[in-house]
Amino acid sequence: MQTAGPDPISPVSEAEQELLRRFDARIDEGGFIEAKDWMPEHYRKTLVRQISQHAHSEIVGMLPEGNWITRAPTLKRKAILLAKVQDEGGHGLYLYAAAETLGISRDELLDALHRGQAKYSSIFNYPTLSWADVGVIGWLVDGAAIMNQVPLCRCSYAPYARAMVRICREESFHQRQGFESLLTMMRDGTQAQRDMVQHAVDRWWWPSLMMFGPPDSDSTHGAQSMRWGIKRMSNDELRQKFVDATVEQARVLGVTLPDAELAWNAERGHHDFGAIDWDEFRRVLGGDGPCNHERLAARVRAWEDGAWVREAAQAHAARHAEPARSATESAR
Ligand code: FAQ
Question: What is the arithmetic mean of pLDDT over 213-221?
């Protein structure tokens, strides 16, 4: 892991050094930092970066599955999918609210997304080609998301940790509904449906492993974020845990994970797995994934189409604030 270097805003005064000493002590004893507490500027910026990327991921992440709401095969599957996609929207809102406690506005965060300057998870730049993709997103993508997010429930920044507790409960339902949908297709479906599931697994497996971020040796922020208790486990540790947990689930489903090198290593007590195509990861991050343009355009369009709702809500709030203000003024 690369070291993140010194805090760019180094304390100048004795008072600030004392604040930093207390901050470090609290982190070292596993304590939490609240929004009103003093924090180093680099810690605040790291959190704004991570939480806003996470929020954008949830909102952009509504699009691949949202694509299938009108084509869900049964009323039950449609109701489940609607609930799931709405949950993702809610997660985005909790997370934008958590980022706002760090002194940045939601408009600023969304503006950065719409101008293409903010990141969101690489996984949402892949297309959903069949109904099986919806099940595989639940099983693998939500499965990877939970693996990464459970340790974030103990993140040192308390407002983020609190948001994550609720999000993880809902992600757990998301993962199960995906697995159950795939199990139904694999056990009760036709050969064509089983092939469709396998094809979806083949396409989503490697991008799911990329969700955990670059290898620890290339992680820009990992070491510092671990030091601060923002991240509790490294990218590679979480990826390994995910592979180990998923192999048995794939066996139960009766699908093959598309990796000839995947094998139990008794010495390590973990599964070995093949090399991830980090060039593909970098291409997707650089804006050249299969759906980057489509995803961003959909978010910008939704923002523009929603302008009248924001204006109406502001006009409504202003009208309601008016009598209260007049009453205060006439009482003076
Ligand atoms: N995609 O130094 P590191 C979900 C960037 S939620 C895009 O290792 P860090 C729910 C990274 O930002 C999924 N960019 O970074 C759902 C940094 O760029 P920067 C989202 C990535 O922060 C399910 C650079 O690479 N979850 O799926 C990715 O220490 C289904 C260097 O990386 C979260 O956001 C990537 N995969 O570790 C919704 C969880 N990986 O900022 C709908 C919170 C890395 O310097 C449907 N986030 N990068 O320009 C985290 O845990 C961390 O931010 C990591 C990255 C682990 C993602």
Answer: 98
Q: Nearest C-alpha to atom 32 of ligand 1 is from which residue? A: 219
Task: Round to whole Å and give the CA distance between 194 and 188.
Answer: 9
Q: Ligand 1: distance of its center to the CA of 120 in Å? A: 7
pLDDT of 259 over the 50 cut: yes
Q: How far apart are CA 209 and CA 151, in angstroms?
A: 17
Residue 235 Cβ contacting ligand 1 at under 6 Å: yes
Write down the pLDDT at residue 4: 44
Q: What sign for the dihedral angle of Cα 68, 201, 209, 27?
A: positive
- pTM metric for this prediction: 0.93
- pLDDT-based confidence at residue 322 (cuts at 50, 70, 90): confident
Q: Is the CB of 225 under 6 A from ligand 1?
A: yes
Q: Would you list the DSSP string of 196-228?
A: HHHHHHHHHHHHHHHTT-S-GGG-SSHHHHHHT
How many other C-beta atoms lie within 10 A of the C-beta of residue 269? Answer: 8
Which residue puts its alpha carbon closest to atom 33 of ligand 1?
54
The fraction of the chain above a pLDDT of 70, given in percent, is 94
